[in-house]
Amino acid sequence: MAKRGVIIVAGGSGSRMQSAIPKQFLMLGGEPIVARTINTFSEAFPGAEIVVVLPEAHMPLWENLRARFDVAPHRIVAGGVERFHSVLNGINALSSEVEYIAVHDGVRALISKRLIIRAMLAAEEHDAVIPVVDVVDSYRRVEGENSYIVPRADLRIVQTPQIFNAQLLRDAYNVEFNAAFTDDASVVEARGGHITLVDGERTNIKITTPEDIALAECFLNLM
Ligand code: C5P
Fold first, then answer.
1. CA 5, CA 187: separation in Å to the nearest integer?
2. Which of 37, 100, 152, 195 is 20 to 30 A (C-alpha) from 44?
3. What ligand 1 atom has the least distance to the C-alpha of 208?
């Protein structure tokens, strides 16, 4: 079986949660958000290398939390200025033997094992895979005083884990940062890679604002 690596990015300081503690360390269902994320990946890929990217200033807080909760084995590395730099630090922390790399937002703690495995199987066939879901709202693009409807059928909401052939990802990240790089697929695409879409999950939300925590607790009760 191909050797798998996982990068869980939780290196942001997250101002939108309006909380002194970054959102990835808040409690969800009795454990820190990022602990749940790590454990789900460890169950999906037993024996995989897991690297967790954290804000340098919060590493002592995480050391304290990981000692108090049941968290699968993982290594930690410091984050960078943008998500791009945090992922790059994660790539550099994985061993060169890793053949496929899954990059996942630490705050997407409701990810299911099923989706992780399904996306990995697709990546082993197509090299660059991201989960997406359809949009249900209407969207408008604003240009100065005017706004224009965007055809909804053409849009998808992008989630993680984004899973790549490791060499493809390493080569793609060997580039200067560009503000258009909002996720890993955008970096791989800039290098000429083709992105394959798989069905994501509506419950795989990016816990970002205080109301997301309440929503996530509700989803947990349904799972
Ligand atoms: O900022 P954004 O909401 O796009 O963050 C998505 C994920 O990337 C979060 O899990 C966040 O912790 C992580 N991140 C990071 N390093 C940064 C910024 C964001 O690891 N500098």
1. 18
2. 195
3. 3
Mutate to test the pocket of ligand 1, among 8, 9, 110 (most ligand atoms within 8 A of CB): 9
Q: In 3D, which of 4, 3, 116, 7 has the Cα closest to residue 51? A: 7
Tell me how far CA of residue 135 lies from CA of 29, 109, 207, in angstroms: 28, 21, 18
Domain membership of residue 143 as a residue range: 4-222
Distance 25 CA to ligand 1 centre (A): 13
Task: Count up the domains in the chain and report the number.
Answer: 1
CA 174 – CA 208 distance, rounded (Å): 29
Ligand 1 pocket, residues with Cβ under 6 angstroms: 9-12, 24, 53, 79-83, 86, 105-107, 208
- Supply the pTM of this predicted model: 0.95
pLDDT digits 0-9 by tens, 167-209: 999 999 999 999 999 999 999 999 999 999 999 999 999 999 8
CATH number for 110: 3.90.550.10
pLDDT digits (tens, 9 = 90+) for 63-80: 999 999 999 999 999 999
